[in-house]
Task: inverse folding
């Protein structure tokens, strides 16, 4: 019997906890009482269809707590999935929460293998191992989509372990045991290589988003059909027709911070491309904000803050940067978010009545199309060409 604790009940932590609790005793630890209470009631604190289904219908060996000693004392493995926000002052991910969990674990448990799933800067794992004289700390990157976190753990593209030790191999086996997919590629690498895999993979995805967004900007500027160009370009099997739907820019929690983190790691390395990806994303948002304002709206409505369908996570969503640019140039903003607790968001009024929202807005910006807006299609501004994420 393996005892596993997962620190952090967000997308990464909760999806891993549910996956592993199918065959192991799992404790989910978080400092937020509301999340712990919800999880113990088998209610997902985040929007994710598979997580909701598994909590409701599967016999999971899973409980949640805010008690550090209860969480860590008997764990064989501790998975760290706490947030590591990008700090623009230091140009690094803030790893304070990761360090705090490591210290909390080691106060009550010297033997557990600590598996870091949080995004960390290159070299972090080796430095914390050396600082603590503790080799039982391993980095294992996650490759999850918001709203599809458990699905992507059940059907992983690969499993990467930043060590090749018996404990790392055991943990990889636990991940495979919980997955639905068979024949999963598993890589055992150095810690730095695992960290680089995560940063370069997400930066490539950001580059692809930025590329097709610039294609769309070109088409808009010259009055030609974006969809026809995308379909023709995508028929080349080397390029493919996936991950090419234009948007307001790449956003979400991972891509913005990982591209900036990787760029910071290139401080002493010749590069042009990585910096251009970050710059292209800002240029895209500025272009779209100007294009929206060219319609001379008095009131701009924002239909949902999240970038993806089936997700409630709007951290670092690109639409927020477009909003800031529009507000800075004098337009009034209203936001449709029916379940939002506050009355305003970044200075914009929250409107919970959809009909009132549609009446008041002169232009409605939506990163992705929604059938809820079909009756006011003439007001909708979106770059969603294919009607999908």
Result:
């Amino acid at each position: 019997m393996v005892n596993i604790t997962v620190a952090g009940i967000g997308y990464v932590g909760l999806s891993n906890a549910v996956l592993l609790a199918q065959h192991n005793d799992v404790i989910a630890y978080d400092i937020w009482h509301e999340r712990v209470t919800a999880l113990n009631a088998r209610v997902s604190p985040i929007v994710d269809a598979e997580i909701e289904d598994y909590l409701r219908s599967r016999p999971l060996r899973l409980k949640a707590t805010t008690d550090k000693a209860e969480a860590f004392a008997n764990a064989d493995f501790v998975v760290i999935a706490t947030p590591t926000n990008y700090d623009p002052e230091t140009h690094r991910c803030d790893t304070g929460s990761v360090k705090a969990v490591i210290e909390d674990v080691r106060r009550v448990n010297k033997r557990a293998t600590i598996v870091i799933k949080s995004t960390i800067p290159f070299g972090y794992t080796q430095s914390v191992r050396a600082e603590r004289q503790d080799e039982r700390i391993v980095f294992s990157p996650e490759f999850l989509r918001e709203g599809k976190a458990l699905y992507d753990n059940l059907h992983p593209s690969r499993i990467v372990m930043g060590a090749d030790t018996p404990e790392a191999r055991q943990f990889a086996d636990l991940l495979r045991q919980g997955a639905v997919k068979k024949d999963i590629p598993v890589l055992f690498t150095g810690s730095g290589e695992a960290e680089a895999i995560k940063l370069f993979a997400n930066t490539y995805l950001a580059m692809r988003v930025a590329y097709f967004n610039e294609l769309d900007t070109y088409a808009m500027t010259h009055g030609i059909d974006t969809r026809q160009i995308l379909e023709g370009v995508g028929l080349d099997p080397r390029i493919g027709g996936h991950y090419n739907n234009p948007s307001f820019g790449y956003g979400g929690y991972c891509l913005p911070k990982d591209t900036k983190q990787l760029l910071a790691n290139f401080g002493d390395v010749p590069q042009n491309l990585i910096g251009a990806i970050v710059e292209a994303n800002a240029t895209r948002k500025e272009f779209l904000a100007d294009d929206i304002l060219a319609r001379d709206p008095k009131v701009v409505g924002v239909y949902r803050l999240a970038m993806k369908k089936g997700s409630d996570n709007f951290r670092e969503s690109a639409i927020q940067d477009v909003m800031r640019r529009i507000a800075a140039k004098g337009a009034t903003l209203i936001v449709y978010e029916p379940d939002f607790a506050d009355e305003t968001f970044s200075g914009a009024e929250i409107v919970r009545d959809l009909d009132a929202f549609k009446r008041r807005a002169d232009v409605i910006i939506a990163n992705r199309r929604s059938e809820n807006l079909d009756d006011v299609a003439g007001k909708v501004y979106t770059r969603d060409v294919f009607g999908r994420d």
Notes: The chain has 14 helices and 16 strands.
